Amino acid sequence: MNVEESAVIEEVLVERPIHHYAHLLPSIFLVGPMGAGKTTIGKLLAKHLKRPFLDADWYISEKAGADIPWIFAKEGESGFRERESRAMDELSAMPDIVLATGGGVVERECNREYLQRGLVIFLDASVDTQIHRTKKDKNRPLLKNDNPRAVLEMLYQRRAPLYKEVADITVATGRAYPKQMMNEILDILIAYVKDIESKSSVI
């Protein structure tokens, strides 16, 4: 996370009574393409819910004692995906967390099953948004080529149906500031919990 993102997290204050409902929410898992803002939004959401924030890529790196590019270089993408699935099994079993996942997590069926253990928010970002947000990031092994746009377009076409398959909530990113996005997400979560409460009272 860069300095600008860190500053955003400190500055964004959203007035929503989410604390009244936080205990009724399961663990929250953020999915979406590279550059969708999963880490930034995840940190903000965790702050408002007063929950631990975890990032799957950071977790994998810490377990491996190496960064993601090193894992890709030494073990290939298949090796990384094996590590990612083990991490997802462990992380998705943790209660009351906010978890940012990697862009390719949905491609494995076992990971999609792990995601069913919580509430999944799909942060949907256009390829233009992804290009803008990842162009200076050197920690993206899949984009180390002469045509990152083509790679992002191909990945989005392949993964978008899978993001939609696992998502309980979908939020478009890239068109609003973090504060606006947080307002939208918190309103959706409050409505989600109220809906659960109303159904429970009927039963």
TrEMBL record:
Q: Name one Pfam family in it.
A: SKI
Enzymatic class: transferase
Q: Which pathway does the UniProt entry assign to this protein?
A: Metabolic intermediate biosynthesis; chorismate biosynthesis; chorismate from D-erythrose 4-phosphate and phosphoenolpyruvate: step 5/7
Binding of Mg(2+), residues: 39
The record's comment on cofactor binding reads: Binds 1 Mg(2+) ion per subunit.
Q: Which Enzyme Commission numbers does its entry carry?
A: 2.7.1.71
Keyword set includes DNA repair: no
Which reactions is this enzyme annotated as catalysing? shikimate + ATP = 3-phosphoshikimate + ADP + H(+)
Cite the SUPFAM superfamilies for this sequence: P-loop containing nucleoside triphosphate hydrolases
Subcellular location, record wording: Cytoplasm
Q: Quote the cellular component terms of the Gene Ontology held in the record.
A: cytosol
What is the protein's name according to its record?
Answer: Shikimate kinase
The record lists the organism as: Moraxella lacunata
Quick one: which gene encodes this?
aroK
